[in-house]
Amino acid sequence: AAAEKDGYPSFMEKEIHDQPSAVGDTLLGRLDENGSLTLDEIKIDESVLRSIDKIVVIACGTAAYAGQVARYAIEHWCRIPTEVELAHEFRYRDPIVNEKTLVVAVSQSGETMDTLMAVRHAQEQGAKVVAICNTNGSTIPREADAVLYTHAGPEIAVASTKAFLAQITAAYLLGLYLAQLRGNKYKDEIATLLAELEAMPAKIQRVLDEVEPQVKALASSMEDAGSVLFLGRHVGFPVAMEGALKLKEIAYIHAEGFAAGELKHGPIALIDQGQPVIVIVPSPRGRDSLHAKVVSNIQEIRARGAETIVIAEEGDEAVREFANHVFYVPQSPTLLQPLLATVPLQIFACELAGAKGYDVDQPRNLAKSVTVE
Ligand code: G6P
């Protein structure tokens, strides 16, 4: 078993380190040298794909957070209304789905019963289903109309890490493919994004090489934390929720991810002296002044005594003034930041759980794949 872990103390730590190749392998063979995409595996008639007027992403757990990240990108590039819903909620609310709906089912295992039931329900209503899955020949891809495999390799640790990054990558490829197929005004942006995607494995590796030791040092000093809050905005919001989920799953610490803009509408009441808050800061180079808004959130919680732990982009000096700790990740387009910003959160949870003496690969009460409804 030690050999299977490549010398790491746990599968989770190994899988965190597999992420550059999980993303790289998921891109492999899908981009040509002109920067255009070929997804031969999407065996759904192009005319059907052109007529789609709604996309619904269904998934559970970490896969659902990958879907939430993907929604920002898919809606932006494709201009197709996109919903993301937990599979078990979707299935039982009589959702409006028809032949013009494309359902994207995201599942690492391909065996999650809640997701499978939602797939079947959508197909009964006439929807086409594309599965994004990490396990060859599992049930969800077998029943789907098409499958886009993530090539993360087997994921053993119960808490999902590399599958999450690979799911975001695959969902982005699907979004870019639909945008390409339907022809659209973001042509230049799409070409740039494909090139940027190819640069991600090396950037993820830099996070592992440079940021991991700093995150571990902080995490191992936080064994006594009673609760940790996570804040993010835009694609940083699902990243915040995923960071909180990791901490709940393996460190058994109460954690919650909030949309940073929602802070003033409630969560700020939770802030008192010493409350740790991890904030994912958007790129200062991005549009819509999201950066300034999140920096002012950090200022507000710091003024109320929070211990602020900030994930920001290299070169972002503005966050330093209000941060107790800053972890810098390489620069990237805003939509790709989740592939970098998630990594310190995974390391944080893994290290904290380890410091508390827990088995990070086999957390209590959880299963890798939940095959009952
Ligand atoms: C379980 C696992 C989670 C996972 C979720 C969805 O709850 O513990 O880590 O995210 O199922 O699994 P799937 O295989 O469908 O991605």
TrEMBL record:
It comes from the Bacteria. Catalyzes the first step in hexosamine metabolism, converting fructose-6P into glucosamine-6P using glutamine as a nitrogen source. It catalyses: D-fructose 6-phosphate + L-glutamine = D-glucosamine 6-phosphate + L-glutamate. The active site is at residue 368. Residues 44-184, 218-363 form the SIS domain. This is Glutamine--fructose-6-phosphate aminotransferase [isomerizing]. Keywords: Aminotransferase, Cytoplasm, Glutamine amidotransferase, Repeat, Transferase. It comes from Kocuria salsicia. Its main location: cytoplasm. It is an enzyme of class 2 (transferase). Homodimer. One of its GO terms (molecular function) is glutamine-fructose-6-phosphate transaminase (isomerizing) activity. It is found in: Cytoplasm. Coiled coil: none annotated. The gene is glmS. Its EC number is 2.6.1.16.
